[in-house]
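Task 17 of the worksheet. Students: predict the tertiary structure of the chain below and write it out as structure tokens. Keep your answer in the requested format; marks are given for formatting as well as content.
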Amino acid sequence: MNTLRMKTAPKIAAALAVASGLFFASSARADVLLFDDFSDGNYTSDPAWSASQGTWSVSDDAVHTGGGTSSFTFLQTKDFTNITSGVFSLSVDVQFSSLTVVGTNRIVLRMRDSQNSSAGFEVAIAQGTMNNSGISAVSGATIGTQTKTTSPYTFPLDTYVTITWERTALGAMTVHVGNQLYFSVDTSSITNFKGFDTLDIGGRTYIDATTTYGYSFTNVELSTVPEPNSVGLLLGVGGVFLMVSRRRRSRMC
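Model answer:
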């Protein structure tokens, strides 16, 4: 191998690494549509939520389910731009009020299309068990093959745990609990999809003779993430090769 080629190869690799890093960094930038840490002491404005089921209260920079006799309790918002691409990233910090390991002690997240009979998807995560836990279709939606963790997570009572739910343009979805991949589906779809315009957070607060289940939520962040542009990446790589090639020719002249 000649000396010029030996000197140039590392520069090509370095240039490609920089170009790829810059491209993917720019393509992965999220457009935050909604964020709420409830530090303003309410859930009715900036952004606006409504209690679609059950009762809710705000304290200590979080929103809390209020108990009662409702079997489910949900807080709902439409205070964000309609996600017509179907691509989103939702992260929520969650705290359980009970260590009871049972499928009815679970939180629920929903992303829905209210213009299409509320079609969409639901994530349910129960305390310490996979019973009643998973991703499911709501109304006119469908999902493909689902994979679930074999290590159910036990939510501590004194710590908020981040749950992250993401969906790609091709309909693949993943849910992480902390750093643990919890669920994934390879594809999903909605007939006559008009966009995700409704977000629900909540859980099952069923009260039996001995147990009340409650949940707290904070740092709710909903974003859209641009899909990687393979054409743009190829153009960027081509530009790097052209730049290096020109430098080689100038040194040889």
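Marker's comment: Residues 70-217 form a domain with the Jelly Rolls fold (CATH 2.60.120). Residues 1-27, 230-253 have pLDDT under 50 and may be disordered.
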